[in-house]
Design goal:
Blueprint (H helix, E strand, L loop, with lengths): L20 H7 L5 E4 L15 E6 L2 H22 L9 H13 L3 H14 L27 H10 L3 E5 L2 H6 L5 E5 L22 H16 L4 E6 L2 H6 L4 E10 L7 E11 L1
Helix pairs in contact: 2-4, 2-5, 3-4
The protein binds S-adenosylmethionine (SAM).
S-adenosylmethionine binds next to loops.
């Protein structure tokens, strides 16, 4: 599946697939409904053309924000933009707004704060402590840009989307004939010393990686295609041994390697 336009996600997201969207478009089989259990920034669903979409993630703050953009469009976008002032681009203001985010129960306010944190925090990371509090430090950017156009584009594209907060196992169970499932789980570590990234307070374990491969095998046995992205390692080659595997190199910021760009080998496993 190849389409001409490219829609940039409005959030910075570790492991975002915007840079390799062409490869993913080419790997995805045709179908009626795209299911994405690991939505992240939404880079993939924004850049493919299906009749229907089920877009899910375990991160409840992320999906709450997407529902606000979907339902309230420009009104929400204008509201969120009011947090992007020079007064709010200081260390003191950042930590105050971060604390407000961690105690906020109002969906619109919390979602606007999520956009603010994403653009003002260190490297656009999304990390929570064991109690579920967002704990990324201040990012020190000269002038964080408010992603107005990207949010309005997202609003338009999201009108045919069902958003859900759920674990990938529950989402994959909803696949039926006509569904195509694209999975972009948190990466497996490149080495035994590297940590799993933590977009949610629970992290993503080696057992989760195995469970995902098992879910993919069950779906293809029912005639439902599944495509999975991950690092290209000995572990992932064996996890996805039954799939057709495409390997390639990408330039990425590797966390823990402050600001350094490294080459990492990635793969796309296609069960079709
Ligand atoms: C590599 S990112 C996805 C990036 C996305 N494809 C993009 O282009 O931005 C992995 C995502 O998986 C989500 N996640 C982590 N554990 C999960 C789980 N058990 N079930 C569903 N989603 C999970 C994280 O919140 C994160 O957004």
């Amino acid at each position: 599946m190849v389409i001409q336009y490219k829609m940039k996600p409005f959030l910075k997201w570790a492991g975002g697939k915007f840079k390799i969207i062409d490869r993913i478009q080419q790997a995805l089989p045709h179908g009626k409904r795209l299911i994405e259990p690991f939505s992240g920034s939404g880079a993939v669903f924004l850049n493919v053309d299906f009749e229907e979409y089920l877009i899910a993630d375990m991160n409840a703050d992320l999906i709450c924000l997407y529902k606000q953009v979907q339902a309230y469009g420009e009104d929400f976008v204008n509201y969120a933009s009011t947090l992007f002032t020079s007064d709010n681009n200081t260390e003191a203001a950042y930590y105050e707004l971060r604390m407000e985010f961690n105690t906020c129960a109002d969906h619109a306010r919390k979602s606007a704060l999520f956009v603010y944190l994403n653009r003002h925090c260190f490297n656009g990371l999304c990390r929570y402590n064991a109690k579920g509090a967002f704990n990324v430090p201040f990012g020190r950017y000269a002038r964080p840009v408010f992603p107005k156009i990207e949010m309005l584009d997202f609003h338009e594209k999201s009108q045919r989307v069902i958003f859900e907060v759920a674990d990938f196992r529950a989402v994959m169970e909803k696949a039926d004939i006509g569904s195509v499932v694209y999975c972009d789980p948190p990466y497996t570590p490149l080495s035994t010393t590297a940590n799993f990234s933590s977009y949610t307070k629970d992290g993503f374990t080696a057992d989760d990686q195995q469970a995902l491969a098992d879910c993919a095998k069950k779906l293809i046995a029912r005639g439902i295609p599944v495509v999975i992205s991950n690092h290209d390692t000995v572990l992932t080659q064996s996890l996805y041994a039954e799939a057709r595997i495409i390997s390639f190199d990408v330039q990425r910021f590797i966390s823990g390697n402050t600001g350094k760009r490294n080459k990492a080998s990635e793969l796309i496993a296609i069960y079709a």
